[in-house]
Design a protein that fits this description.
Length: 275
């Protein structure tokens, strides 16, 4: 069974009082992650129970064919009480601010639910995916954006979705550890102040351009931009667009440009689903 979840780009965010969700502005993109899930492959295995009986006691996860320890995916499978082989195909860079861990976890949960006929609701699968991300320290809410699609602005509990299929360009120079960032108390305090200010500055009907502008102000305020990021943002602005840095990765995204950055995609109007 296969499922797809779009990548997501967060322009600005702030932690909520609960500490296990975030408020902010993000958008889903058409590039994402496909998860193919089947019972752990020990002969002709058709159910998770058979898999365990035949000796498959651990799930196996691969990314583009290479075995990997993908903690939130493993946690989601444990929460679903299944032992599975998960083959992930990534259309987005991993660890670079595209919500890859959330997309992989949500796609896996959706596919596993169907593969093992678990009967979980979409809301239950979303909750399992979110808790797996929080426990692993890889995200605070990407899966909600990836489940909804479009441009999403929210305060942690109330999320507003806006239809938007705007083209987006991006370039990535590498990753930033989300886990380390979330553990940095001083940085998170700056992020909370800057994120709340940026959210308050958005109108009731925000555009991608407006979100991007506030996102760059936010990035400057929390002092996360590297020199490469600054140069790419300047290049996009020189081309007549607006640009900012993805949270959290050494990645620049831009709106209103054509050919200014290396890669081009669109905001995805649909959320995650089975293929």
């Amino acid at each position: 069974m296969k499922a797809f979840a779009p990548g997501s780009v967060t322009a600005l965010f702030a932690p909520t009082e609960s500490g296990d969700e975030s408020m902010g502005a993000s958008f889903a993109i058409e590039d994402g992650i496909v998860a193919e899930v089947r019972p752990a492959d020990y002969g002709d295995v058709s159910t998770a129970t058979d898999s365990v009986a035949r000796g498959a006691t651990e799930s196996v996860v691969t990314v583009d064919g290479d075995p990997t320890d993908f903690e939130p995916v493993g946690l989601a499978l444990d929460a679903l009480s299944v032992t599975a082989r998960v083959e992930l195909t990534a259309e987005i860079p991993i660890g670079c601010g595209f919500g890859a861990s959330g997309a992989a976890t949500l796609a896996t949960a959706l596919a596993a639910n169907a593969a093992f006929d678990l009967g979980k609701t979409r809301e239950e699968l979303l909750g399992i995916s979110h808790r797996a991300e929080v426990t692993a320290g890889t995200g605070l809410g990407d899966v909600f954006v990836q489940e909804m699609g479009g441009l999403v602005v929210g305060n942690g509990t109330d999320r507003r979705r806006y239809d938007c299929e705007t083209p987006v360009e991006y370039v990535s120079f590498g990753g930033i550890s989300t886990e380390q960032m979330l553990a940095d108390a001083d940085l998170m305090a700056r992020i909370e102040r800057a994120g709340r200010r940026a959210l308050d500055a958005l109108s009731a009907e925000p555009t991608l351009a407006a979100v991007t502008r506030e996102g760059w102000k936010f990035t400057e305020e929390v002092e996360l931009a590297t020199e490469e990021v600054r140069e790419a943002v300047a290049s996009a602005e020189d081309a007549g667009g607006v640009a900012s840095m993805a949270m959290v990765g050494e990645t620049v995204f831009a709106a209103g440009t054509e050919g200014a950055l290396a890669n081009r995609t669109r905001i995805c109007p649909e959320g995650a689903g089975l293929l």
